[in-house]
Amino acid sequence: MDDVNAAPAVMPVDAIKTLMMLRAEMVQREARMSAAINDRVQSLRQEVAQFRRDIAAIVEGAGNRIALDAKEAVSPMAAEYGRAVSGASAQLRSAGRTVWGWLGAAGAILLMVLVVGWTVLGYYRRELAATKEELQRYEDAVPVVQAFYASDAVICGGVICTNGDPGGSRVGDRGQYRAARPRPQP
After folding, report:
1. Which ranges constitute the DSSP H helices of 62-153?
2. H helix or E strand, kind and range, residue 61
3. Residue 154 belongs to what H/E stretch?
4. Using one digit for the tens of pLDDT, what is the confidence trace for 38-82?
5. Half-sphere exposure (CA, 13 Å, Cβ side) for 54?
6. Would you put residue 115 in left (φ > 0), alpha (ψ -120 to 50) or beta?
7. Residues with Cβ < 8 Å from 88, sequence gap 6 or more?
8. CB burial string 16-30: b at 16+ within 10 A, e below
9. Phi-psi region of 179 (alpha: psi -120 to 50; beta: other; left: phi over 0)
10. Overall pTM surpassing 0.90 (yes/no)
11. Dmax (CA) of the chain
12. Among 6, 37, 41, 148, which is least packed by CB within 10 angstroms?
């Protein structure tokens, strides 16, 4: 029997795999960016610590004049360092905004995939319920069709006409029905 109400195709697994790969790439990129920023900040901290140790050694070993000369010599480096730290801080803030933007986009995509998946699942549940009902009607009709084909009966004018068995058993509350003769075997 032809199935007129065929269910539409299921959402391709490739689309889900692609979305999962995109998410993994975004997480990896975020991890790389975070590691690079952390490395840069750690490097700057180490440079600052080394710089401070150098200054402390110079100041402790020399008099006021040497300390003054050292400070004057180091001032341009400190200003350069301050500019470098400011630049790194601005880059860090920019990278943070980018990461949050990617996370927001990934969250929106995930939410959209979940909503679409839930909608498709609901559609297929309704289709499955309708198909189960139709199948149950067919299964309920099987005994009737088997009995019709086993009996010497035909359809005439929209009703069933039988070749009644005069010796057959009677059924019904008043015995008004009689069993049909078995269908002759060819």
Report:
1. 64-150
2. helix 13-61
3. strand 153-156
4. 888 898 889 888 888 887 776 676 566 766 777 788 888 888 888
5. 12
6. alpha
7. 40, 41, 44
8. eeeeeeeeeebeeeb
9. beta
10. no
11. 138
12. 6
Question: DSSP code of 1?
Answer: -
- CA atoms of 182 and 162, how far apart (whole Å): 10
Residue type, 151: S
Token pair for residue 4? 């007129």
Tokens of 34: 């975070």
Q: Which residues of 127-143 are buried (b: 16+ CB within 10 A; e: fewer)?
A: eeeeeeeeeeeeeeeee
Number of helices (H), then strands (E), in the chain? 2, 4
Residue 101 is which amino acid? G
Nearest to residue 43, comparing CAs of 11, 84, 4? 84
pLDDT digits (tens, 9 = 90+) for 106-139: 999 999 999 999 999 999 999 999 999 999 999 9
Q: What is the distance between the alpha carbons of residues 45 and 147, in angstroms, rounded to a whole number? A: 92
